[in-house]
Amino acid sequence: MNPWVVWWCAWGLAFLAAEGAALLNERDDDTLSEQFWRAFKVYDQRPTKLVIAGRVILGLFGVWLTIHMTFGTMTLSHPLPW
């Protein structure tokens, strides 16, 4: 068996355990999305230019990750989808 499969499965299970525990309790600011919202100051009424730049970078990363995971491209070995 490929050891990377074991590592990624262990990581996924650890994430599910942490997120599940966070979802099942009554506290705020403990889920992954709440951590991102706090880090990127989603609820700030007047975000700074640095906060806006961080949000743009996060958005671009999300677009890349979606294309990368869906189509298996945009890597060093397969840089372009065509």
Topology:
Layout: H1 3-24, H2 32-39, H3 49-71
What does this protein structure show overall?
The structure is a single chain. With 82 residues, the protein is an all-alpha fold. It has a domain at 40-82. The chain is built from 3 helices and no strands. The longest helix has 23 residues, at 49-71. The model has no long low-confidence stretch (mean pLDDT 92).
Descriptive tags:
3 helices; single chain; mainly alpha; 82 residues
What would you say about this model in short?
The chain has about 80 residues and is mainly alpha-helical. The chain has helices at about 5-25, 30-40, 50-70.
N/C terminus separation:
32 Å
Identify the overall geometry: flat
Task: List the uncertain runs.
Answer: none
Helix/strand/pairing class, anyone? mainly alpha
Please indicate the percent range of residues in DSSP E strands (runs of 2 or more): under 5%
Average the pLDDT over all residues and give the rounded result.
92
- Biggest sheet overview: none
Number of helices: 3
Cα-atom Rg, whole angstroms?
17 Å
The tally of beta strands, per DSSP, is 0
SSE ordering: HHH
In percent, how helical is the residue content?
55-70%
